[in-house]
Amino acid sequence: MESIYLKTLIEAVKTGSLSKAAENLCVSPSAASRRIKFLEDQYGYPLLDRSGPVLKPTQAGSLVFDKAKKLLEIEQELLHGLTEMGNKPRISFCCTPAFGIAYLSSVLKEFMMHNADLNNLKFFFDMPDKVVKGLKEHLFDLAVIEHCACLDLKEVLTFPLPDDEMIFVSAPSLGIESAVADLDILVQQRLYSRNEGCCSKIFLDSNMQNVGRDSQEFKQIIIYDDLHLIIQAVLDGEGIAFISRSVVDKYLDNGSLRVHRVEGFRHNRNRTLVVPHAKQIDTNLMNFIGCIFSAFSLTLPELETTISQPPPPAIF
User: Fold this and answer.
1) Which domains occur in the chain, in start order?
2) Is the pTM of this model over 0.85?
3) Which UniProt keywords apply (predicted)?
Protein backbone atom coordinates (compact mmCIF):
# COMPACT_ATOMS: atom_id res chain seq x y z
CA MET A 1 0.00 0.00 0.00
CA GLU A 2 1.31 3.48 -0.86
CA SER A 3 2.13 5.51 2.26
CA ILE A 4 0.21 8.52 0.89
CA TYR A 5 -3.06 6.81 1.88
CA LEU A 6 -1.87 6.53 5.47
CA LYS A 7 -0.58 10.12 5.38
CA THR A 8 -4.05 11.24 4.30
CA LEU A 9 -5.66 9.47 7.26
CA ILE A 10 -3.14 11.03 9.64
CA GLU A 11 -3.79 14.53 8.27
CA ALA A 12 -7.57 14.00 8.44
CA VAL A 13 -7.38 12.97 12.08
CA LYS A 14 -4.94 15.74 13.01
CA THR A 15 -6.91 18.52 11.32
CA GLY A 16 -10.42 17.13 11.88
CA SER A 17 -11.25 17.97 8.30
CA LEU A 18 -10.88 16.23 4.94
CA SER A 19 -10.71 19.56 3.13
CA LYS A 20 -7.91 20.79 5.40
CA ALA A 21 -6.09 17.47 5.03
CA ALA A 22 -6.40 17.79 1.26
CA GLU A 23 -5.02 21.35 1.40
CA ASN A 24 -2.02 20.25 3.49
CA LEU A 25 -1.31 17.41 1.05
CA CYS A 26 -1.88 19.58 -2.04
CA VAL A 27 -4.69 17.40 -3.46
CA SER A 28 -8.41 17.92 -4.03
CA PRO A 29 -10.91 17.08 -1.26
CA SER A 30 -12.41 14.38 -3.49
CA ALA A 31 -8.99 12.75 -3.87
CA ALA A 32 -8.50 12.78 -0.10
CA SER A 33 -11.96 11.27 0.36
CA ARG A 34 -11.17 8.49 -2.14
CA ARG A 35 -8.00 7.63 -0.26
CA ILE A 36 -9.87 7.27 3.02
CA LYS A 37 -12.51 5.15 1.27
CA PHE A 38 -9.75 2.93 -0.12
CA LEU A 39 -8.37 2.38 3.40
CA GLU A 40 -11.83 1.63 4.78
CA ASP A 41 -12.44 -0.90 2.01
CA GLN A 42 -8.99 -2.39 2.56
CA TYR A 43 -9.43 -2.87 6.31
CA GLY A 44 -13.16 -3.53 6.34
CA TYR A 45 -14.02 -0.90 8.98
CA PRO A 46 -15.06 2.76 8.95
CA LEU A 47 -12.05 4.78 10.08
CA LEU A 48 -13.56 8.24 10.51
CA ASP A 49 -16.63 9.37 12.43
CA ARG A 50 -18.24 11.96 10.16
CA SER A 51 -21.29 12.66 12.34
CA GLY A 52 -19.97 15.86 13.97
CA PRO A 53 -18.50 19.13 12.71
CA VAL A 54 -14.99 17.78 13.30
CA LEU A 55 -13.81 14.42 11.98
CA LYS A 56 -12.81 11.97 14.69
CA PRO A 57 -11.26 8.51 14.37
CA THR A 58 -13.41 5.49 15.08
CA GLN A 59 -12.02 2.74 17.30
CA ALA A 60 -10.58 1.06 14.21
CA GLY A 61 -9.41 4.44 12.92
CA SER A 62 -7.45 5.11 16.12
CA LEU A 63 -5.68 1.77 15.77
CA VAL A 64 -4.77 2.42 12.13
CA PHE A 65 -3.73 6.01 12.98
CA ASP A 66 -1.29 4.87 15.68
CA LYS A 67 0.24 2.14 13.52
CA ALA A 68 0.41 4.45 10.48
CA LYS A 69 2.51 6.98 12.39
CA LYS A 70 5.00 4.26 13.31
CA LEU A 71 5.14 2.99 9.74
CA LEU A 72 5.80 6.47 8.39
CA GLU A 73 8.55 7.00 10.96
CA ILE A 74 10.22 3.83 9.69
CA GLU A 75 9.83 5.08 6.12
CA GLN A 76 11.50 8.38 7.07
CA GLU A 77 14.44 6.51 8.59
CA LEU A 78 14.73 4.37 5.46
CA LEU A 79 14.68 7.38 3.14
CA HIS A 80 17.24 9.15 5.31
CA GLY A 81 19.57 6.15 5.10
CA LEU A 82 19.24 5.93 1.34
CA THR A 83 19.86 9.65 0.96
CA GLU A 84 23.01 9.41 3.04
CA MET A 85 24.21 6.54 0.83
CA GLY A 86 23.71 8.67 -2.26
CA ASN A 87 25.68 11.52 -0.64
CA LYS A 88 23.62 14.08 -2.58
CA PRO A 89 23.36 17.66 -1.30
CA ARG A 90 20.15 18.05 0.66
CA ILE A 91 18.61 19.76 3.67
CA SER A 92 16.15 18.13 6.04
CA PHE A 93 14.64 20.77 8.32
CA CYS A 94 12.19 20.33 11.18
CA CYS A 95 10.40 22.97 13.22
CA THR A 96 7.38 23.53 15.38
CA PRO A 97 4.11 24.51 13.65
CA ALA A 98 4.35 28.01 15.14
CA PHE A 99 7.71 28.72 13.50
CA GLY A 100 6.58 27.07 10.27
CA ILE A 101 3.50 29.27 9.94
CA ALA A 102 5.24 32.51 10.92
CA TYR A 103 8.67 32.26 9.30
CA LEU A 104 9.28 29.25 7.04
CA SER A 105 7.85 30.85 3.90
CA SER A 106 10.17 33.87 4.11
CA VAL A 107 13.17 31.71 5.06
CA LEU A 108 12.61 29.42 2.08
CA LYS A 109 12.05 32.34 -0.30
CA GLU A 110 15.34 33.97 0.67
CA PHE A 111 17.23 30.67 0.55
CA MET A 112 15.97 29.70 -2.91
CA MET A 113 16.92 33.09 -4.34
CA HIS A 114 20.58 32.15 -3.89
CA ASN A 115 20.43 28.34 -3.87
CA ALA A 116 18.00 27.48 -6.65
CA ASP A 117 20.12 24.51 -7.77
CA LEU A 118 19.49 22.60 -4.52
CA ASN A 119 16.38 20.52 -5.23
CA ASN A 120 16.44 18.09 -2.28
CA LEU A 121 14.67 19.97 0.51
CA LYS A 122 12.51 18.26 3.13
CA PHE A 123 10.42 20.00 5.79
CA PHE A 124 8.79 18.44 8.86
CA PHE A 125 6.68 19.81 11.70
CA ASP A 126 6.53 18.33 15.19
CA MET A 127 6.57 19.00 18.92
CA PRO A 128 9.89 20.14 20.53
CA ASP A 129 10.70 16.85 22.29
CA LYS A 130 10.13 14.84 19.09
CA VAL A 131 12.16 17.31 17.05
CA VAL A 132 15.14 16.90 19.40
CA LYS A 133 14.74 13.11 19.27
CA GLY A 134 14.78 13.24 15.46
CA LEU A 135 17.93 15.35 15.48
CA LYS A 136 19.74 12.90 17.72
CA GLU A 137 18.68 10.06 15.42
CA HIS A 138 19.99 12.07 12.43
CA LEU A 139 16.59 12.28 10.76
CA PHE A 140 16.99 16.07 10.44
CA ASP A 141 19.95 18.30 9.63
CA LEU A 142 18.76 21.19 11.76
CA ALA A 143 15.66 22.46 13.52
CA VAL A 144 14.03 25.44 15.23
CA ILE A 145 11.97 24.87 18.35
CA GLU A 146 10.04 26.97 20.82
CA HIS A 147 10.14 25.32 24.22
CA CYS A 148 9.23 25.96 27.81
CA ALA A 149 10.08 22.65 29.51
CA CYS A 150 13.35 20.93 30.27
CA LEU A 151 14.75 19.25 27.17
CA ASP A 152 17.86 17.10 26.95
CA LEU A 153 20.02 19.16 24.60
CA LYS A 154 23.42 17.79 25.64
CA GLU A 155 24.03 15.95 22.36
CA VAL A 156 23.16 18.87 20.08
CA LEU A 157 24.45 22.35 19.34
CA THR A 158 22.03 25.10 20.36
CA PHE A 159 21.91 28.74 19.28
CA PRO A 160 19.42 31.09 20.94
CA LEU A 161 17.00 33.04 18.77
CA PRO A 162 14.72 35.85 19.94
CA ASP A 163 12.11 34.65 22.42
CA ASP A 164 8.63 33.70 21.29
CA GLU A 165 5.88 35.69 23.01
CA MET A 166 2.77 33.73 24.02
CA ILE A 167 -0.39 35.82 24.36
CA PHE A 168 -4.13 35.47 24.70
CA VAL A 169 -6.03 36.67 21.63
CA SER A 170 -9.71 37.39 21.05
CA ALA A 171 -11.93 38.88 18.35
CA PRO A 172 -13.25 42.42 19.00
CA SER A 173 -16.78 40.99 18.98
CA LEU A 174 -16.13 39.36 22.37
CA GLY A 175 -15.72 42.81 23.91
CA ILE A 176 -12.53 42.14 25.91
CA GLU A 177 -10.96 45.59 25.75
CA SER A 178 -7.95 45.57 28.05
CA ALA A 179 -4.46 44.60 26.82
CA VAL A 180 -3.73 43.50 30.40
CA ALA A 181 -6.77 41.35 30.97
CA ASP A 182 -8.33 40.13 34.18
CA LEU A 183 -7.95 36.35 34.28
CA ASP A 184 -11.46 36.09 35.76
CA ILE A 185 -12.80 37.58 32.51
CA LEU A 186 -10.73 35.31 30.28
CA VAL A 187 -11.78 32.08 32.00
CA GLN A 188 -15.41 32.91 31.19
CA GLN A 189 -14.57 32.27 27.53
CA ARG A 190 -14.23 29.09 25.49
CA LEU A 191 -10.50 28.31 25.09
CA TYR A 192 -9.20 26.86 21.83
CA SER A 193 -6.02 24.92 22.34
CA ARG A 194 -3.76 22.31 20.81
CA ASN A 195 -3.40 18.85 22.35
CA GLU A 196 -2.25 18.17 25.90
CA GLY A 197 1.33 17.35 24.90
CA CYS A 198 2.04 20.52 22.95
CA CYS A 199 4.38 23.15 24.34
CA SER A 200 1.84 26.00 24.30
CA LYS A 201 -0.62 23.96 26.40
CA ILE A 202 2.14 23.00 28.85
CA PHE A 203 3.20 26.66 29.04
CA LEU A 204 -0.37 27.79 29.74
CA ASP A 205 -0.89 25.14 32.42
CA SER A 206 2.38 26.18 34.10
CA ASN A 207 1.38 29.84 34.08
CA MET A 208 -2.04 29.08 35.51
CA GLN A 209 -0.46 27.07 38.33
CA ASN A 210 2.03 29.87 39.05
CA VAL A 211 -0.83 32.29 39.74
CA GLY A 212 -2.76 29.74 41.78
CA ARG A 213 -5.31 28.88 39.10
CA ASP A 214 -6.19 25.88 36.93
CA SER A 215 -6.69 25.63 33.16
CA GLN A 216 -9.89 23.68 33.76
CA GLU A 217 -11.47 26.93 34.99
CA PHE A 218 -12.05 28.04 31.40
CA LYS A 219 -15.68 27.83 30.35
CA GLN A 220 -14.83 25.10 27.85
CA ILE A 221 -11.63 23.80 26.26
CA ILE A 222 -11.76 22.83 22.59
CA ILE A 223 -8.78 20.83 21.33
CA TYR A 224 -7.68 21.19 17.71
CA ASP A 225 -4.40 19.81 16.39
CA ASP A 226 -4.24 22.44 13.66
CA LEU A 227 -3.28 26.05 14.36
CA HIS A 228 -5.21 27.29 11.32
CA LEU A 229 -8.47 25.92 12.77
CA ILE A 230 -7.73 27.52 16.14
CA ILE A 231 -7.03 30.91 14.57
CA GLN A 232 -10.17 30.75 12.43
CA ALA A 233 -12.35 29.87 15.43
CA VAL A 234 -10.98 32.86 17.35
CA LEU A 235 -11.40 35.16 14.33
CA ASP A 236 -15.04 34.04 14.17
CA GLY A 237 -15.53 35.14 17.78
CA GLU A 238 -16.10 31.63 19.10
CA GLY A 239 -13.57 31.93 21.92
CA ILE A 240 -9.99 32.81 22.82
CA ALA A 241 -6.58 31.18 22.38
CA PHE A 242 -3.20 31.28 24.09
CA ILE A 243 -0.94 31.39 21.07
CA SER A 244 2.40 32.52 19.64
CA ARG A 245 2.24 36.21 18.75
CA SER A 246 4.32 35.59 15.61
CA VAL A 247 1.54 33.36 14.24
CA VAL A 248 -1.17 36.03 14.55
CA ASP A 249 0.80 39.26 14.04
CA LYS A 250 -1.02 40.17 10.82
CA TYR A 251 -4.42 39.82 12.50
CA LEU A 252 -3.29 42.02 15.40
CA ASP A 253 -1.96 44.61 12.96
CA ASN A 254 -5.23 44.83 10.98
CA GLY A 255 -7.42 44.80 14.09
CA SER A 256 -9.04 41.41 13.46
CA LEU A 257 -7.71 40.20 16.82
CA ARG A 258 -6.84 41.81 20.13
CA VAL A 259 -3.90 40.90 22.35
CA HIS A 260 -4.27 40.22 26.08
CA ARG A 261 -1.61 39.59 28.71
CA VAL A 262 -2.18 38.47 32.28
CA GLU A 263 -0.43 39.95 35.29
CA GLY A 264 1.78 37.29 36.88
CA PHE A 265 2.12 35.25 33.66
CA ARG A 266 5.48 34.55 32.04
CA HIS A 267 4.63 35.36 28.43
CA ASN A 268 7.98 34.64 26.76
CA ARG A 269 9.36 31.18 25.98
CA ASN A 270 12.72 30.15 24.53
CA ARG A 271 13.22 29.80 20.79
CA THR A 272 16.33 27.86 19.74
CA LEU A 273 18.14 26.80 16.58
CA VAL A 274 19.35 23.23 17.04
CA VAL A 275 21.94 21.27 15.02
CA PRO A 276 23.24 17.73 15.68
CA HIS A 277 26.64 18.02 17.38
CA ALA A 278 28.36 15.70 14.90
CA LYS A 279 26.74 17.29 11.86
CA GLN A 280 29.05 18.47 9.08
CA ILE A 281 27.98 22.05 8.30
CA ASP A 282 28.35 22.39 4.54
CA THR A 283 27.81 25.54 2.47
CA ASN A 284 24.13 24.84 1.71
CA LEU A 285 23.31 24.20 5.36
CA MET A 286 25.22 27.29 6.48
CA ASN A 287 23.29 29.37 3.94
CA PHE A 288 19.99 27.99 5.24
CA ILE A 289 21.01 28.77 8.82
CA GLY A 290 21.91 32.26 7.68
CA CYS A 291 18.40 32.71 6.24
CA ILE A 292 16.88 31.68 9.57
CA PHE A 293 18.99 34.25 11.40
CA SER A 294 18.12 36.83 8.75
CA ALA A 295 14.41 36.31 9.50
CA PHE A 296 15.16 37.74 12.97
CA SER A 297 17.48 40.47 11.62
CA LEU A 298 20.52 38.60 12.97
CA THR A 299 23.64 38.12 10.90
CA LEU A 300 25.41 34.89 9.99
CA PRO A 301 28.85 35.99 11.35
CA GLU A 302 27.36 35.83 14.85
CA LEU A 303 26.63 32.16 14.20
CA GLU A 304 29.97 31.44 12.53
CA THR A 305 31.91 32.55 15.61
CA THR A 306 29.93 30.11 17.72
CA ILE A 307 29.56 27.06 15.50
CA SER A 308 32.85 25.43 16.55
CA GLN A 309 32.33 25.80 20.28
CA PRO A 310 31.34 22.82 22.46
CA PRO A 311 27.61 22.30 23.01
CA PRO A 312 26.17 24.49 25.79
CA PRO A 313 24.25 22.99 28.74
CA ALA A 314 20.60 22.06 28.35
CA ILE A 315 18.21 25.00 28.04
CA PHE A 316 15.28 25.17 30.47
Assistant:
1) 3-82 (1.10.10.10), 89-152+277-304 (3.40.190.10), 164-268 (3.40.190.10)
2) no
3) DNA-binding, Transcription, Transcription regulation
